[in-house]
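Complex record, two chains
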Amino acid sequence: MMSTTRAWHLMSRPTGLPTMDNFALKEAALPELQDGWARVENQWLSVDPYMRGRMNDVRSYVPPFALGEPMQGGAVGTVVESRAPSLAVGDKVFHMLGWREAAAGPAEAFNKLPPLPVPDHQWLGNLGLTGGTAYFGLLRVAEAKEGDIVFVSAAAGAVGSAVVQIAKAKGMKVIGAAGGAEKCEWVLSLGADAALDYKSGPIAKLLADAAPDGIDVYFDNVGGDHLDAALGAARQRARFAICGMIEDYNSGSSHSFRNLLRIIGSRITIKGFIYTDYLSEIADFYRDMGGWIASGQVTSRETVREGIEAAPQAFLDLFSGANIGKMLVRL
Amino acid sequence: MMSTTRAWHLMSRPTGLPTMDNFALKEAALPELQDGWARVENQWLSVDPYMRGRMNDVRSYVPPFALGEPMQGGAVGTVVESRAPSLAVGDKVFHMLGWREAAAGPAEAFNKLPPLPVPDHQWLGNLGLTGGTAYFGLLRVAEAKEGDIVFVSAAAGAVGSAVVQIAKAKGMKVIGAAGGAEKCEWVLSLGADAALDYKSGPIAKLLADAAPDGIDVYFDNVGGDHLDAALGAARQRARFAICGMIEDYNSGSSHSFRNLLRIIGSRITIKGFIYTDYLSEIADFYRDMGGWIASGQVTSRETVREGIEAAPQAFLDLFSGANIGKMLVRL
């Protein structure tokens, strides 16, 4: 039986900020189930800033989206048909065949949700790529430890809000930057010691006032002026985990850095990283994050859009900061 | 007996590129010798780009030069009077009381030249701060290893030319950047696999052509467009040692970076460092560098200015790239 699904296709490669014209919602054929395959209906789709990179035709750590084809991304769904012994109809799974209502593929493409008492969508958030990026970036890449002074940008975003809470759970002092009073209030409610509203003044000045003794760790989601401010505030042997530079995804940096020389004088280490580099340590992450969620030390907030039609606009809204916490699409 | 010396004093703090007006050659009193002290007449003075930082009144890894006082810097001299059992008249020493004709201080301030068959001034060059910075930066900070493709900027400078030769001695492929045909010829003569004349075109294009497969290591002496080009060419898990940013010392960076996002996708590590962090490993450096100099694998070239009067202009000329190899002042 041939079946189809509605899926968002990449129709043209954006230059700068993408627009709705770059995308089209079209019927796509689902491949027929082979032995060892399953078919899944999606309930939750993730939209993430990193997807912008896959819309360019450049070699990177993940291949670019193919033009005229369905895009991919994190999703949670339910198995509705299975020819794989490891998957039963009704099983909940998370997988990377998002941007569509249904998906079919080999059982290895689908991961059964681990038996933790959390809502399904958390596997796209604090227990998924988002939380894992925060966890490994803060603790492994930046080697943040108890007592460190940590600065995190986009602290009201999906990754940033997880960084704030992980840092507090580990006994660090945390300064978060976010845009606007509502976001800053939420960042404080997560336990941050200070929340800096970058719309209220130059972030370098705000950070210097909030951290007169400087910072040990910077978790970068923004780039540009936030990165420069962190360089200016870095203490000796500060460590920077570069997770994202949302200011630069669409246009490249137009910021003129004032503080690059401090890399030398303060012996700063700056490291880029990718969540999947740390999959071999994911048991640590599930143990710690599962525990913090169970104890209430890590909470989450979602900005939810409804229906497959909403997916590209949800994605675009990431770049104007329209989300608080994790941006999700519910089908 | 009270004695004096001519010494260069910092009379005002430069803004931007220093000028001769910032300095004055004046008589300064030499402190009377106490027990355990010695008096030294200097034969060689070092001028180095890092000294620009000490002319600013900012906290850094070394304290700023005091206004109205003699400056300091690397020097080689001869003991002419001693009240210290460890130093005899006639001993050759290297020390940090430069920018002056003579110096007096406790014996611990003076290091007897180790018994290696090299010209005295090498202790300010390949066997001194210059060579040590190259050695530890390349091998420890950037963890460069046999087979790596290494890019080094200011490759005809004191540190850069040492990096080129150490990299070749260790079996790496080396691409050096320098300004002008004469410098590039010298870089090639040191063994570099390619020399890029940054005055002949955009360094990003030159590097992309010379390293179509990318680079594993970047040794940065320049910052700005060279650093951006290196980011653009970096392979997966590339390591950058940030030694200097001569483009930025006087004015801060005005470069708009195009390739910062590659820090993430290529998992680049960028590390600032200071030579003195590695003094505990200096025996390794003397052993290796001494051997390479003895075998002719590492050679040197100097740009020598004559007389104490010449010191500030020699220093200023570093910023216009007037030197090939190590810039020295001979007294």
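Note: The two ends of chain B are 24 Å apart (CA to CA).
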